[in-house]
């Protein structure tokens, strides 16, 4: 397996660290952000846009790619990376998040409805044609092998914050069984991919520690933090990561699945040892006009480091989105023009705003890495999260 994690430097007085994840398709300098190519596409952006925006890695969605275009098609291209024209490292999730939370939320746009979850696996109906499918740990490993990602995830049933005590115990116990089966199937497939074990347990310290100890005992090449508690609220995410911070090893990479919270959430997560993360909200917000700005532009914890470019106050604004950003949108266009594009429904607006947000987060990760290497992470965090 051509995969390794090298710790380059740790910050003083925190678990923040700079490292290098080596994969068959290139190295990832950490901490790093992975845009989400749900259906082998980061909406409105091509591979060249992602590269220009500083992206090192992209994440594909097992559930969606399994249903369309399907494993048979992806195999012909030797992975979803080549299929979408992306030449760098790739990650896939396991499909566990989608099938688990459809169980509670039912059908939504672009998703089917789960029929039943048992220890055997999750039975769900396709949102495309209503056909019935069974996704198992073994099936997830086979699908992810066909998707060709460098880093793949064990099949799990994440714990929802609204689960009853009984449901939480069932999901947690089932996840341990599914992860063990995922590991055995991965070994049996003789895959060259790196399989990450997923730590679950919501904000329950006992469950999180039990889950992490299990993942470490199995010998997974990497660790992922999962569940709704790694979502949009930085305070909850911090509490969740704090439950296991003292047990995290230095020799394994840590990925946060669906890490939310913007810059403030990212800084808190990195301080607690997160090496990489994915988030669909970065580009989703961009398409709705919520654009990230730097402290130098007036970005603060209060405004969540973002502006709403749709607001009428920007219709005559000659300034770029950010004065300090070097992305294509900020180099070439005004806030007024981008406001015009979005309120007019012009597709160029979606591309430019997405480029900006992805570039911004990638640049933030580069600034964090530089600060860690220079021994100045605490000062960087203080600068960004200072009280106003």
Structure description:
The chain folds into two domains: 4-279, Alpha-Beta Barrel (TIM Barrel); 291-367, no CATH class. The chain is built from 15 helices and 17 strands. The protein is 41% helix and 18% strand. The protein has helices spanning 47-52, 62-67, 71-76, 80-84, 96-105, 137-147, 165-188, 205-218, 234-242, 262-271, 281-288, 328-332, 335-343, 347-373, 377-385; strands at residues 4-10, 17-23, 26-30, 32-34, 36-37, 58-60, 90-92, 114-118, 121-125, 132-135, 151-153, 194-199, 222-225, 254-256, 276-278, 290-292, 306-308. It has a six-stranded parallel β-sheet with strand order 4-15-14-13-12-11. The protein has a three-stranded antiparallel β-sheet with strand order 1-2-3. It has a three-stranded parallel β-sheet with strand order 5-6-7, with no helix packed on it. The termini are far apart. With 388 residues, it is an alpha/beta fold. It is globular.
CATH homologous superfamily heading of the largest domain? Queuine tRNA-ribosyltransferase-like
By DSSP (H or I, 4+ residues per run), the number of helices equals: 15
CATH topology of the largest domain: TIM Barrel
Shape: globular
Q: What is the tally of beta strands?
A: 17
Labels describing this entry:
6-stranded parallel β-sheet; 388 residues; TIM Barrel; 2 domains; 18% strand
């Amino acid at each position: 397996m051509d995969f390794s994690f090298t710790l380059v430097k740790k910050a003083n007085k925190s678990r923040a660290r700079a490292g290098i994840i080596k994969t068959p398709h290139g190295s990832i300098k950490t901490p790093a952000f992975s845009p989400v190519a749900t259906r082998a596409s980061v909406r409105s952006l091509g591979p060249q846009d992602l590269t220009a925006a500083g992206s090192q890695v992209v994440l594909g969605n097992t559930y969606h790619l399994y249903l369309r275009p399907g494993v048979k098609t992806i195999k012909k291209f030797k992975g979803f990376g080549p299929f979408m024209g992306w030449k760098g490292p790739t990650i896939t999730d396991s499909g566990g998040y989608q099938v688990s939370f459809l169980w509670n939320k039912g059908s939504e746009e672009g998703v089917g409805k789960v029929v039943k979850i048992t220890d055997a696996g999750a039975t769900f109906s396709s949102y495309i044609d209503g056909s019935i499918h069974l996704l198992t740990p073994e099936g997830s490993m086979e699908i992810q092998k066909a998707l060709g990602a460098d880093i793949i995830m064990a099949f799990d049933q994440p714990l929802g914050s609204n689960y009853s005590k009984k449901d939480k115990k069932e999901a947690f116990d089932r996840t341990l069984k599914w992860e063990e089966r995922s590991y055995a199937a991965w070994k049996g497939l003789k895959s060259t991919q790196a399989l990450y074990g997923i730590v679950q347990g919501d904000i329950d310290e006992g469950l999180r520690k039990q889950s992490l100890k299990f993942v470490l005992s199995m010998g997974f090449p990497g660790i992922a933090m999962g569940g709704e508690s790694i979502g949009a609220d930085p305070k909850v995410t911090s509490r969740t990561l704090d439950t296991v911070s003292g047990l995290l090893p230095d020799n394994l990479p840590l990925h946060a699945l669906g890490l939310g919270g913007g810059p403030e959430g990212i800084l808190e997560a990195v301080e607690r040892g997160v090496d990489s993360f994915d988030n669909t909200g970065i580009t989703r917000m961009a398409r709705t006009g919520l654009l990230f700005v730097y402290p130098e532009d007036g970005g603060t914890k209060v405004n969540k480091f973002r502006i709403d470019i749709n607001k009428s106050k920007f219709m005559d604004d000659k300034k770029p989105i950010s004065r300090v950003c070097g992305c294509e949108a900020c180099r070439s266009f005004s806030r007024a023009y981008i406001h015009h594009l979005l309120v007019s429904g012009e597709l160029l607006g979606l591309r430019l705003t997405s480029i900006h947000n992805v570039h911004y987060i990638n640049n933030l990760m580069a600034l964090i890495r530089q600060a860690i290497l220079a021994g100045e992470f605490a000062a960087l965090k203080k600068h960004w999260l200072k009280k106003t």
